[in-house]
Amino acid sequence: MSRSNPRVLSTLERAGGFASAQEIYALMQRDGQQIGLTTVYRSLQSLLNDKIVDVLRREDGEAIYRLCGESHHHHLVCKSCGKTVEIEGGAIEKWAKNIASENGFRDVGHTAELFGTCSNC
Amino acid sequence: MSRSNPRVLSTLERAGGFASAQEIYALMQRDGQQIGLTTVYRSLQSLLNDKIVDVLRREDGEAIYRLCGESHHHHLVCKSCGKTVEIEGGAIEKWAKNIASENGFRDVGHTAELFGTCSNC
DNA sequence: TTTAATGCAAATACTTTGCAGGAAA
DNA sequence: TTTCCTGCAAAGTATTTGCATTAAA
User: Fold this and answer.
1) How many CB pairs under 8 A join A and B?
2) N or C: which end of chain B has fewer CB within 10 A?
3) A60 CB contacts (<8 Å, ≥6 apart)?
4) pTM score > 0.90 for this model?
5) Boundaries of CATH 3.30.1490.190 in chain B?
6) A59-106, pLDDT tens digit by residue?
7) Which nucleotide has the shortest C1'-to-CA distance from B23?
């Protein structure tokens, strides 16, 4: 797989660490940076692979990418405005471990996302 | 807007109260029910409007609809053989509600999946 | 007759892939 | 040369919409 174009990552940072592929592409175009949409998508795939970014979905299904810290966490996302709060998942980690051992599973990971409507919407 | 075709709702129920438009359409086709994909989409829109169903997004962005008020469950999936266990999510529901109110969110739903290696693998 | 439901086909939007030209090692 | 990066164009998938036909009231 191809490596990430560094300008894609820096554009994502500049966008507030939260943007779709289309938006990153548009931003770069507006700045006069020469790049193809394909490269933006491929770079994001690669960043995702390296766990440098995280992917969520907007209400309309568009994928939005955001920079991700190293610690395992979850998100609480507003369905209306996209506002995102990072959640520490202590309780859910414990829950996952319990469920796993109850069912004889090992090496258990998990995904969890919360979504709703924030106080401003 | 057009009203919902009742067979769409009953197919969604039959699917376990959780399916995408494409899946509902395929299910109805397989059963020999005559319906168009357009009608399935329009019916789901209408059910959504009437708050009879709820919409979530799969990881790949496909919209999945579920009956409102269904006590939904989660899955524990073996990465190696695909064995799946249904999990009752009492603990996680409570967790989600707490997190939501702590952050001033309302109408909060969630997704959660566990994956690991089962005892046979 | 008037209104609502239906479904085909076309249009949209996002995303991925095939392929060939060019840059880098 | 060999390998990697790039981007156009085409393909793919999910979803919506225009429009004419049909069923129902």
Assistant:
1) 99
2) N
3) none
4) no
5) 74-116
6) 889 999 988 765 577 888 887 776 778 888 778 888 888 999 999 998
7) D14
Residue B5 gets which letter from DSSP?
P
Interstrand relation of A106-117 and B18-20 (parallel, antiparallel or unpaired)? unpaired
Q: Do A100 and B114 touch (CB under 8 A)?
A: yes
CATH for B6-67, options being 2.170.150.70, 3.40.50.1100, 1.25.40.10, 1.10.10.10: 1.10.10.10
Inter-chain CB proximity A99 and B114 less than 8 Å: yes
The alpha-carbon gap from B27 to the nearest alpha carbon of chain A, in Å, equals 23
Which residues in chain B are closer than 8 Å to A99, comparing Cβ atoms? 76, 87, 114
What would the DSSP string read from start to end of A69-91? Answer: -SS-EEEEEETTT--EEEEE-HH
Fold entry, domain A74-116: Dna Ligase; domain 1 (3.30.1490)
Distance between CA atoms of residues A75 and B104, nearest Å: 14
- Taking only the tens place, the pLDDT of each residue in B30-86 is 999 999 999 999 999 999 999 899 888 887 899 999 887 666 678 787 666 657 787
Which positions on strand C lie below 7 Å from a protein C-beta? 4-9, 13-18
Answer yes or no: are the C-beta atoms of A87 and A114 closer than 8 Å: yes
Ranges of CATH 1.10.10.10 domains, chain B: 6-67
